[in-house]
Queue: 3 jobs
Job 1
Amino acid sequence: MKFNFIEETQMVPLIENEEGSIYQIKNESGEGIMTTYQVFPGVSISYNDYHMESCDSTFSTNRNLFCIDHCREGRLEYASGQGTYSYVEAGDLKLDRRISHQGHFEFPLAHYHGLMITFDMDLAVGALKDEIKNFPVNLVLLQKKFCDGKHPMVIHDAPAIEHIFSELYMVPEKIRIPYFKIKIFELLLYLDVLEVPKNQDEKPYFYKTQVEKIKGMQKLMTENLETHYTQEELSARYDIPLTPMKNCFKNVYGSPINTYMRVYRMNQAAVLLKNERNLSVTDIAGKLGYDSPSKFSAAFKTVMGRAPLDYRKNFGLNGTK
């Protein structure tokens, strides 16, 4: 049984067997792979690796679900209300019942990597009891604790989350299913004692008009890398006050404007260093808006960990190490 937020008609099965399935997802903005393993009856783990900007979901179900998403890398934008958006970032947990899972979803960084544990409650409650007698966690009460409302609950920076999930991304094939079982019980025990934040309903959200302006701003800057726009210029150009602009940009893209653009420029520089070997460091610096090659080299070393020429020397003519 497949539980994900991508419309099923977009999914192409690559492998399907008793242990699990692999699906490829494609649309005009990119593609991704979803790998799903059946752990217990009614309980599955899905690894989601998407390199795409957005997807549209028509997902609906009459099943009683409890879904736990962990974001390892990237960001997910989702509707948190009428005309408002919230964000899931690296290290976050998103818990919901997939009740309000239709609509348009975006990946602001053009990639998303994480996993999802899905409980089909009608089957999972009995299956968990069969695995461990007298297991102290009541799955029904746990679902109610975190999914009492229509919209997802997102948990930021909770202790032990990274410990639990980090080990799930590097499980040897020989012990995969039994290890999944142990980690699921560990997660349920942790969630059972975790106190729900009192200010959970006060999660950050941003209005559609704000988000659209920020995305227009990002498009302007990334399509004109030779120009360094000041934040005051951007604020005036997009008619958004400076402080809300900074706050919204960081929530949409995960870092402050200047940090985001510095990293973006250096990643573009890395591509040019590898693929355009006829261009000098001075040429590349100019294309990215640096009138001083030394300032460009310093910025590149800060982001990429080595000087531009050293980086280029580590790649052959075909662009590979």
Job 2
Amino acid sequence: MTRRRLGTWTAALLFATVSVVLGCRLADTDGVTPVPQLLAFLPWLLAPAAAGLALALLARWWSGTIWAALVLGLLAWFIAPYGQGGEPDGRVLASFRVMTSNVEFGRATDALVTAVREERPDIVFVEECDHGCSAALRRSLAVSHPYRRSVEGAGSTGSVVLSRFPLEPAAGIRDSTMGMPGAVADVRGHAVRLQLAHPMPPLPGQLDVWRRELGELRDFAATTGSPTVLAGDFNASQDHAAFRAILDTGLRDAARLAGADRTPTWPARTAPAIGAQIDHVLVSADFSARGARFLDLADTDHRALLVDIALHGPG
């Protein structure tokens, strides 16, 4: 009897924890700590839910098995890709390759330079590019990527956009904790708005900043009104309401369009197999995407994302 009671209480604790996270997901809110942190790993909540089901069956707790079925059903529902899919109808006007990489305080700068030379992306979004990183990219990639927009800073605050295409300045996201520069690229005669994303992570005590900065990215996405590429380390996955609000403006996740949604990008060093996809390339509805690949770079806890996109004309 004691074992059955222990199994029942353990299963109930597991179900309750998962249910709180699912309740916030169902209510379209990110809640309070630790819910936002757990939402990033929502697919992996299948493990405690399945363990709870096994305990409920062993304890012959039949109402618990019904609870488990509801929890597992909701998890399966929410794991499905979020946002719009499909391709635009118009003819292709220009194709190019985009890369985004968080180089973790500049430590992975050398690895990024090697990857850029090998993969030859046309536009590169670099997060956590400190002063040394920015200078190194200027020295090493000035010939292949002569155009750049940057926010210079120490540690995680610096960010750089590199381009083979001419760039015109754009406002970017102002008053952000970490640099989020913007630009307008002349892609073979077509203006494409570029915006780097790097909001604060959802740290305990910093959730308001995280929500505000994701909200500023949503406001940008809602008002850009032109072909747009919004890329970087969003510190959020599709299971965060603040990130879904960006997708709800009409932007689409290029990795999903290319069939690579939910591929983990962080933490690449400590738990690559059970991580979360928080690094994204988002594109407006006049783009298609293919060939998304995730690159393991040395000395950073993020995987780089490389994707080929194509701008289409009117349908």
Job 3
Amino acid sequence: MDARQLEYFLAIVDNDGFGRAAAKLHIAQPSLSQAVAGLERELGVRLFHRIGRGAVLSDAGKELIGPARQVLRDLRTAKATMDSLKGVQRGHVELVTMPSPGIEPLGTLTRLFTREHPGIMVGADAAFTPDEVLQKVREGVCELGLVGVPGDLRAPGVDVLPLESQDFVLVGAELPDDDPVPVTALGGARLIASPPGSQMRRIVDEMVTSGAEIVAEVAHRTSILPLVLQGVGLAVLPSAWVPLARRAGARAVRVDSPSQLHVALVSRSAPLTPAARAFLTVARSYTPLDHLDT
């Protein structure tokens, strides 16, 4: 077994088939099939069930995904560690983030990190739920993950670094004079909401019970503020959005609600690359006031 075979195996998994994987790897499909067949012979198991012109992961194949990612990650970590000893100041931080932490504190963390490490690129993958973030970190798809949850995060298999707790605010062009504004004081208001299931949506649903109306529902939360600026309606957002909203010309008032978004950075328990370790070091020194350090 060699790293190339594992890379090919994961390419098939991540690209949903041999054809797309071959195109992604820039190799001929027969060469890819031959390499995987060799891996199956060495392991003594079938990794894929061939069905017509397609392929479906076998139980053995499903079990190999995590270890294969770990092996390739460890090889990259070893190379990056040797490069760092030689004084190489380049690399790539691979993290995954939920939408709201992807605005802040990701923006501030990236600014602080790239100032200290200008030769290292930060790559941010997207996920919508804490479970998606944790799965990608545990499986080695990414080394780091930003999550926002209602309370303290307890997640076996990863290390958790709490970063901040964000209150919720109401953002818009025309807002009630109250600050904080009661959720019961928005009868007749037009609201922009995320889909059901999030903390923001639960607050919005309380407002709807008091007579407010949802006029737009968007899955991509980065679309919410542009819709507010277009005058579509008001929106409930975590307080870390306030500086951005105000710079864009919107107003913000606190929502009178005990709900908070607790943001944490999770990391693989296995050895991290030097780039990821450096990002984690920056995160450990982070404070919410850094949002205002421009």
